[in-house]
Amino acid sequence: MKATAKVLANNENSTLQKPTFADLMTAQLEGVAGTEVVVSITTVPPFTTLPTHWHPGEEFAYVIEGSITLHQQGKPDEHYKKGDAGKIPLKQIHTISTGADAATVLVFRVHESGQPGRVLV
Questions:
Q1: Contact yes or no for 42/105 (Cβ under 8 A)
Q2: How many domains in the chain?
Q3: pLDDT 10s digits, 73-104
Q4: Is residue 4 part of a domain?
Q5: In a domain, 64, yes or no
Q6: Which tens digit of pLDDT belongs to each residue from 1-13?
Q7: pLDDT for 48-63, tens place per residue?
Q8: Which domain holds residue 63?
Q9: DSSP structure class, residue 96
Q10: Is residue 52 within 8 Å of 120, Cβ to Cβ?
């Protein structure tokens, strides 16, 4: 019990905060039947790893604040900081994590209309 209390005290901010995900817009992609674009913003607290997942389409991300590490199945980790952009291929299993700082990421997903935004693994 004391060890757990100490860990919580050391990571108090990250244990009280949760990641946030907000879709800013969804629109049909003109000229490509059955395809939509979803624009989202994600905020990830310090020392947080998102659940492992994949998307039924391609994902493009731009780091607005902080930094993240992208973990993709079968690939080396990639590190992104404020101002960096990256791409995650169709159905690539992945997650992101943060270090000592929170991160805010603007995400564009292009996928088949009607599919879920993410599928947890």
A1: yes
A2: 1
A3: 999 999 999 999 999 999 999 999 999 999 99
A4: no
A5: yes
A6: 333 333 333 444 4
A7: 999 999 999 999 999 9
A8: 18-120
A9: E
A10: yes
